[in-house]
Amino acid sequence: MLLAAGTGNPLTGQIEERASRPDWRFFFNLGGGGISGDFSKALEQPRTGEFGLRRSSGHWRFGVGVNFGSMILEAPFEDELEWGYQRTFVSAERLLRTDTPLRPSLGVQAGVARMHPRSELFTLNPLPGDFEVGDSPTPASNGVFVGLLPGLEWHASSSVALETSVLVAWHSTSQTDLSPVAQPSATTGIDW
Hints:
Blueprint: H1 2-20, E1 23-32, E2 35-37, E3 43-57, E4 60-73, E5 83-95, E6 102-117, E7 141-155, E8 161-165, E9 168-176, E10 186-191
Antiparallel strand pairs: 1-3, 2-10, 3-4, 4-5, 5-6, 6-7, 7-8, 7-9, 9-10
């Protein structure tokens, strides 16, 4: 009897306190999509993986993360090594409803972007004078991106949720030479 009285009220208090506190969550996403703009003449079939941390408080979520993408070259260069596309970002997301298991949301991401060819077609020739073994022989293009992220989450339990979303992002990088694949230089694009 003492044990039952001792566990009932404190547990209820802990649950109420936890529900009102902000919490941190790890997230992981896999995806695929498309690209348009300057880079679309040379690249296709983006595939991505993303992970990060997100803090939830009421209807809002704020987070940081890293997205690793991969794109292949258009024919006749489709057998060449892929292009890497990395984004490091901060995010803000607003849950539009929290009173149902299906929760629509709208978010934004912004951060830095990096495009990097891995194909030997893009090897610098000649290599820079300060080149050392282990350095990449292909040039990377750095820039920024900003994206809009509408989504729908199924809240399965207090610790598990499945989410589907679409990120539509505009990116701008330093000028990228695409002459090895007979295309003009590229700087901007939209990917999803």
